[in-house]
Amino acid sequence: MEEIIDFLRRLSENNDRAWFDAHRAEWTYVRGQVANLAARLIDGIGSFDPAVRGLRPQDCTYRIARDTRFSHDKTPYKNWIGVFVAPRGKKSGYAGYYLHLSPVEDTLIGGRHMLISGLYCPEGAVLRSVRDEIFDNGAGFLDAVAAARGFELDRRNSLKRTPQGFPSGSEYDDLLRLKEFCIARPVDETFLSGDDAPDRIVEEFRRTHPFVDLLNRAVRYAYEEMM
After folding, report:
1. Whether 51 contacts 87, CB under 8 Å
2. How many CA atoms lie within 13 A of 204 on its CB side?
3. Within 10 Å of residue 199's Cβ, how many Cβ atoms?
4. How many domains does the chain have?
5. Helix axes 197-206, 24-46, angle to 10 degrees
6. Tens digit of pLDDT for each residue in 182-206?
7. Is the CB of residue 81 less than 8 Å from the CB of residue 101?
8. How far is it between the farthest Cα atoms of the chain?
């Protein structure tokens, strides 16, 4: 992973098309390294979460080019790499396991190199289903968070008031106000170094499986209701 991070660091310092074109052969190599990393994560996570078995690296990775059409930031390339291993792939709407590699602080993610498990920006019906799960089984939700030792629940994206349809002041009111459901752990480059780094990442994600599984039960229920 050192080669991936090193390329991202230099890209962050030279984020323009001329530099990228001059280093396109290097990016082709790094992209292959990312695909290999994704394949190892899929295989490892699939050992404890059968729902992700059969995914391909392209199902879990993202283009390096940014979509700048609606952004004030016109830099052409992302300075990060993400691998999101989730049932049916990164666009499925299911909860999953996300590795974020970045040489600079990412305010959206909340750090640099991060391991994150959970559900990001769920659509309305899914959000309601997860909240129903929490309202009915808040203790189970908190047990799943606690089982993911080293990870913390991200509470930054939250409503100021209890969402409509739920009584205010309930025992799990703060959880019901969440707009997305993610647990995160920052990691440093020492953790990410060495050929066995993907194995260490998989072992960290293993502890988050109860959390992801609980969320995906609610996601499946919402999708079944929408059919």
Report:
1. yes
2. 24
3. 12
4. 1
5. 40
6. 999 999 999 999 999 999 999 999 9
7. yes
8. 59
Instruction: Note the Cα 118 to chain centre separation in Å.
Output: 7
Note down the domain range covering 40.
Answer: 2-226
Q: In whole angstroms, what is the distance from residue 203 CA to residue 218 CA? A: 24
Q: What count of other Cβ atoms lies within 10 Å of the Cβ of residue 51? A: 19
E strand or H helix that includes residue 176: helix 173-176
Helix (H) / strand (E) element for 124: namely: helix 124-147
Q: Are strands 152-153 and 114-119 parallel, antiparallel or unpaired?
A: unpaired
With contact defined as beta carbons under 8 Å apart, do 52 and 42 qualify?
A: yes
53, 141, 176, 177 from 165: Cα distances, Å: 37, 20, 11, 12
What is the C-alpha separation between 170 and 148, in angstroms, rounded?
24
What global pTM score does this model have? 0.95
